[in-house]
Specification:
- This protein has 6 helices and 8 strands; from the N terminus they run E-H-H-E-E-H-E-H-E-H-E-E-E-H.
- With about 180 residues, it is of the alpha/beta class.
- The strands form 3 sheets. The chain has a 4-stranded mixed sheet with strand order 1-4-3-2, sandwiched between helices. It has a two-stranded parallel sheet with strand order 5-6. The chain has a two-stranded antiparallel ribbon with strand order 7-8.
- InterPro entries: Ald_DH/histidinol_DH, Ald_DH_C, Ald_DH_N, Aldehyde_DH_dom.
- Its EC number is 1.2.1.3.
C-alpha cells in the first residue's frame, strides 16, 4: 500500500520531515525487482507510469518538492524515484486522489478536528493509519477516519486472510472475502 498523504502534527513536523526524507532517500535503490539489493521496483505499466508523472507535475505546481527526480525517462523501465512534497495545497488533485506510486505529500496539522477533516476530504478511503503513543487518541482517529481499513502504528494493511477487507467511498468495490466468511 502506498501512502499518498501524511499529516504530521505541527509540534514534530520539522524533525519528522527531515527523518522521513533521509529514510525515504535510503530506499531509493531502484532496479531489478528480483534482486535482493533492489528496494524499489518499476511501476506496473506505461499507463500507471504516465499517471504518476502527471501527479508529480501537480505536486511541483501545488507543493514543495523536497525529494524527487528532475526528469524521468522510461528508457530502462517504468522507474520513478521516490518523491516527497510538503505544504501541498489541500485543494490540489494530488491530495484528493489515490496516487498508487512512489509519491507522498506531507502536510502539517494543528488539531485532531483539523486533520480528520483534511484526511476525510476525498472521495476515496481505502486505508488510513495513525501513529501515536496515546491509545485513546488512536481510537478516536480510527473511529473518525472514513476508510475501509485503519491501522494503528502500522503503515500497511494488516488483516487475517479470512477477514473481510476493502475500501470506503470510491475506493475498492466492496468487501473481499465476505462470502467466504459469511458462508
Amino acid at each position: 500500500m502506498a501512502n499518498s498523504r501524511i499529516y504530521v502534527q505541527d509540534t514534530i513536523a520539522d524533525r519528522f520531515i527531515d527523518l522521513f526524507k533521509t529514510k525515504f532517500s535510503e530506499i531509493a535503490k531502484m532496479g531489478d525487482p528480483t534482486s535482493s539489493e533492489t528496494r524499489h521496483g518499476p511501476l506496473v505499466d506505461k499507463a500507471q507510469f504516465d499517471k504518476v508523472l502527471e501527479y508529480i507535475e501537480m505536486g511541483k505546481r501545488d507543493g514543495n518538492m523536497i525529494l524527487g527526480p528532475d526528469s524521468v525517462s522510461a528508457d530502462k523501465g517504468y522507474f520513478i524515484q521516490p518523491t516527497i512534497f510538503t505544504s501541498t495545497s489541500e485543494d490540489s488533485q494530488i491530495m484528493k486522489e489515490e496516487v498508487f506510486g512512489p509519491v507522498v505529500n506531507i502536510n502539517v496539522f494543528h488539531s485532531e478536528k483539523d486533520v480528520l477533516a483534511k484526511a476525510n476530504d476525498t472521495e476515496y478511503g481505502l486505508y488510513a493509519s495513525v501513529f501515536t503513543k496515546d491509545i485513546s487518541r488512536a481510537m478516536r482517529f480510527a473511529k473518525g477516519f472514513q476508510a475501509g481499513t485503519v491501522g494503528i502504528n502500522c503503515s500497511s494493511p494488516v488483516t487475517g486472510a479470512d477477514t473481510p477487507f476493502g475500501g470506503y467511498k470510491g475506493s475498492g468495490v466492496g468487501r473481499e472475502v465476505i462470502i467466504k466468511v459469511a458462508g
